[in-house]
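Predict fold of IstB-like ATP-binding domain-containing protein; 51 aa.
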Amino acid sequence: MFCTQYSQKDWHQRLGSGVHADAIMDRIIHNTVWVETGTYNMREHTALTSV
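Predicted 3D structure, encoded as tokens:
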């Protein structure tokens, strides 16, 4: 399981955009189920409701 705050399209660049990044992405993406949680920010929500 991988959890990240970055979108899938940014991973390759963040991994260095080279041959190693290609290999890592190939292994991660194969048979992957992606769950997008959206842009909801729980910190902002909590800050607004606790004041």
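The chain has a mean pLDDT of 82.
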